[in-house]
Amino acid sequence: MTDTYQELCERGRQSATLDSISALMGWDQETYMPAGGSAARAEQAAALAAIRHDMKTDPRVGELIEACESNGTMSDPDSPEAANVREFRRDYDLATKLPKDLVTELAKTAALGQEAWKSARADSDFDTFRPWLEKLVGLARRKAECYGAPKGGELYDALLNVYEPGATSAEIESAFVPLGKRLGDLVAELNESGTPPETEVLNAEIPADRQHEFGLFVLDAIGFDLRSGRLDVTTHPFCEGVAPGDTRLTTRYRDEHFTDALYGTMHEAGHGIYEQNLPKGQGHGPADCFGQPLGESISLGIHESQSRMWENFVGRSRAFWEWALPHAQKMLGDALAGVTPEQLYRAVNTARPSLIRVEADEVTYNLHILIRFEMERAIIGGDLEVGDIPAAWNEKYKHYLGVDVPDDRRGCLQDIHWSGGMMGYFPTYCLGNLYAAQLWESINEQIPDLDAQISRGEFGPLKDWLARNIHQHGRRYRAGELCQRLTGTPLGADPLLRHLEGKLRPIYGIA
Amino acid sequence: MTDTYQELCERGRQSATLDSISALMGWDQETYMPAGGSAARAEQAAALAAIRHDMKTDPRVGELIEACESNGTMSDPDSPEAANVREFRRDYDLATKLPKDLVTELAKTAALGQEAWKSARADSDFDTFRPWLEKLVGLARRKAECYGAPKGGELYDALLNVYEPGATSAEIESAFVPLGKRLGDLVAELNESGTPPETEVLNAEIPADRQHEFGLFVLDAIGFDLRSGRLDVTTHPFCEGVAPGDTRLTTRYRDEHFTDALYGTMHEAGHGIYEQNLPKGQGHGPADCFGQPLGESISLGIHESQSRMWENFVGRSRAFWEWALPHAQKMLGDALAGVTPEQLYRAVNTARPSLIRVEADEVTYNLHILIRFEMERAIIGGDLEVGDIPAAWNEKYKHYLGVDVPDDRRGCLQDIHWSGGMMGYFPTYCLGNLYAAQLWESINEQIPDLDAQISRGEFGPLKDWLARNIHQHGRRYRAGELCQRLTGTPLGADPLLRHLEGKLRPIYGIA
To answer: What is the ipTM for the molecules in this complex?
Structure first.
């Protein structure tokens, strides 16, 4: 490799190292930071953001990329080097479009905004959060303006593109709206013509410490490496791929509905297994591409496909409970005595409109996302004022899910994303479901006895398939290209609908 | 204030902000970082150390200091500005003496060295740690050479001076050697002529979670602000003043000897209360000197005087147990039923030679430090090879404490300091005991009913005295000057000896 390319990678590594420090600070803020530390944390975040920004926008990086583009480094377009330079270019162009003061301001406001959100959420008091959200929306719009709307697109697309390269509102709308329609029909069909499964079994009271122990057991079984990771408790579950060899998950426990915490854990583990198997020098193979695009995840949509797959396609399957229940009965105490795998399988596969996204079932979850997509698009598009968010939120929940939102805590204050300045992020959750369903069909073709393996607690072949076909490629392929390569077709809604209809109708007794 | 001075303070703040991030990383490494993250953590530490070093040694800082020294900022030598500029000068001169590659190498080796120490300690295997220690000693010597030995002093003094400004080996030797002699005599007198107190009460088995709850209760009572701090568990207890409003303590629990954890907690709380009351904008008064010397602690010796005061002068007093025992009996379960304050007071005041420094009693603790001082001095002076450390350690423990060291885990591998590259740090522990004793006499003159207050759980007046007379001054006075101002005399060994002899002889039944 040329010295130029080496220097580019070296600079990427330095920059990624600072990013990893920032990730640690974010994790700490959500887990163990005392409340009194929030002002200082904002100052730390802003200071580091400024340094990271300088590093990422250093004109020398631009020169190196330009040199690599013209010196033959990319002559084989399928080479790792070509992919790296292509993606370094994308990152550099995005970074140089933002002025440093905006980056610093965003980091600081996000840190303070999250603290304001936490207390507003606890008190269900939107008004105290409103000035922060106005500031955050203003900053998000400024950010979008700096990136610029894509040709023929809208301002919001500029934010989408950060999380899901190339995604546009128009495309997402054209997928989500019919999906929402058919899922709405499915929910109506199930609840009007079918018999909802018995969910009494989920009311078993199980202490948090036992749930935690069981969660760790499942993590270990499905292949999340706990020597290079951990599981903590936060208000809002997340996965932070802090650094190579250091991937941290969080979940939350209630005494009832132990499966909420379990699926939270399995969901984040899906993200975590992706992070742990990226080729960034973590002891899983020789490649150490830390700081290079080849060591990074493709997009949030693909990331979410991994979390949804472990949560829903594995975790909510009959086969999973055939394996997991005997262990759960041993570890969770008497509360599950006499329960059958079939009972649990049915109980965790309902389609019941509800208020909280992260606790939503596999069907209605997508409607929660549709609502957020429509709202964000309107907010960034200037069609919805921040002060009108609670009313608009409640109206959409009534329209799409038929539920009345009793307070903002269970309404527009439930999610952390906006308080951290993340707008344009939510749609990737639904894209993840679509990708997961489409990949799942291909995986089952290639591992015909996958279901039997799962029922025996053999998760290795699935994990290896994902690592080999997705994780190990880093950002070598864009999301759409990867989907086409692995499934033979572009992303579509049919696999997800087949999966949901095929699972839910029998459970609800519909032929 | 001049623009120059303002810019100097602003740069100090930026630099302190990055220091605070580094502190968080250090805390995380000892508490929650998964083992797999250690290589990445070393890379993070090195990257940040390089940036911090650039910031601290920026020639612009030197220019600003020089300008302040000549533009009248220091015209009133007693002003806060004069103190700040004087101390900024000290920091700048120290920082610019170290080349960047050494700083980076030290940060990285310390991070990796700590991991190596952890596993070597667990296996009691000095040989696996030896190459790391050789590297760390080499780096410490290089560091000392960069600073240079003070006039007429030795190389080791250059390291002492980092932690205790102005301290020299010769002075420390002249205080420690007679102190060691008289304490050795005291230990002999107590154990030959006296009757050791009954310590059976300490064998009560108390679960860690209850001890933790009680520890938090005591922290709150003595004035450590848990809203701006926390208490976690680590192998080696410490206090990390992460950032303004964010001070973190750790302790460790065993089922027996609950007072070990309690005194660990109270010790670290003493450090923590100092950190929480420094004028760095934490809501304890209007001053926000974060990043200025006026917002920082004086020296490790003074820091240690605060921890030792709460641990030993408060915590090991009869009055403390009169207050604490009824609460302990409520919170710690039946194991302490029927125990009297007098029994506990006597049980925690023994003078019994032992192996582990952090569990040593108040008398023999100083002998543990004397040993480390002699060893470090010999190591840095080139008179002791790393490979000979275990033998030398064991020999000194036999000589000064009369104990046989059964393995390196309980010998030269017991402390974290050297693995983090900290040589020259240990003597400050004994200096802390001396300062604490001398301050304690003055405090008792000024708060004559302090003992009665403590027996009623009223710790506010003591905490306020410390905050007002020590904490709020930051680095305005050097340690020796502060001691002279507050006690009327230079630091001496007599108050500590008076305290120990006066407490221990009656307990051992010696008139």
So the answer is: 0.91
